[in-house]
Amino acid sequence: MAEPVTAPLGVILAGGQARRMGGGDKGRLEIGGRSILDHVRDRLGPQVEAMALNANGDPARFADTGLPVLADSIDGFAGPLAGVLAGLDWAAGQGARHIVTVAADTPFFPADLVPQLLLAAEAQGKPIALAATPDPERGIARHPTFGLWPVALREDLRAALAAGTRKVVAWTDRYGTALASFPVDRGDPFFNVNTPDDLARARERSA
């Protein structure tokens, strides 16, 4: 049985290279007159005790966000798991037991993401919880950048990354993963902006 969880910290994952958008920080693109990162921060903030931003490169470019900026400790853009590790190391220094991660390019994620992840982990007795949505082909689709992660597993994650693990579910499946399922009747809440076409769709959706 998973131990009770209270007051997780939030980590916004923005460590990717945004190749399909021509590089740069996707979170800085605007939707409805505000940046995607602003939308993400405003959705996550009320759900967590405190927030940080996982991003690589010059942290000064995010000074206006007021958030601590956490760089990957693993070289070479090792993917979301490196951002999770950076968040877990930060949370350990804050005395927290858990973090919840969200992607910086996903402006419509659920306003009840964190409580649903907490409920799923407790009800299903798993140390990690991931968000999921119905999928007509696979039955259910997991969203591995939207998860609840225990600080107690950070050294395990560090070792896995050092050994070459990069795919999120390749690591989470070792421990058992609870799933928090969210409806898609009003559109996919985990729709993310990867391409210029996605950005146009996001702007239409927020209009």
Strand content: 15-25%
Secondary-structure element string: EEEHEEHEHEEHHEH
Helix content: 25-40%
Number of strands: 9
Strands of the widest sheet, in order across it, are 5-4-1-6-8-7-9
- Helix tally equals 6
Query: Gap between N and C termini, in Å?
Result: 44 Å
User: What's the overall geometry?
Assistant: globular
- Name the poorly predicted regions: 1-5, 18-22
What's the gyration radius in Å? 16 Å
Quaternary structure state of the chains depicted: single chain
The largest β sheet comes out as: 7 strands, mixed
Q: Quickly give the structural class.
A: alpha/beta
Secondary structure elements and their pairing?
Layout: E1 9-13, E2 30-31, E3 34-35, H1 36-44, E4 51-54, E5 69-70, H2 80-94, E6 98-103, H3 113-124, E7 128-135, E8 139-150, H4 154-162, H5 168-172, E9 177-181, H6 196-206
Parallel strand pairs: 1-4, 1-6, 4-5, 7-9
Antiparallel strand pairs: 2-3, 6-8, 7-8
Describe this structure as you would to a colleague:
With 207 residues, the chain is an alpha/beta fold. The protein is 29% helix and 22% strand. The protein has helices at 36-44, 80-94, 113-124, 154-162, 168-172, 196-206; strands at residues 9-13, 30-31, 34-35, 51-54, 69-70, 98-103, 128-135, 139-150, 177-181. A hairpin with a 2-residue loop joins strand 2 and strand 3 (34-35). Helix 2 (80-94) runs antiparallel to helix 4. Mean pLDDT is 90; it is low at 1-5 and 18-22.
Short description:
The chain contains six helices and nine strands; from the N terminus they run E-E-E-H-E-E-H-E-H-E-E-H-H-E-H.
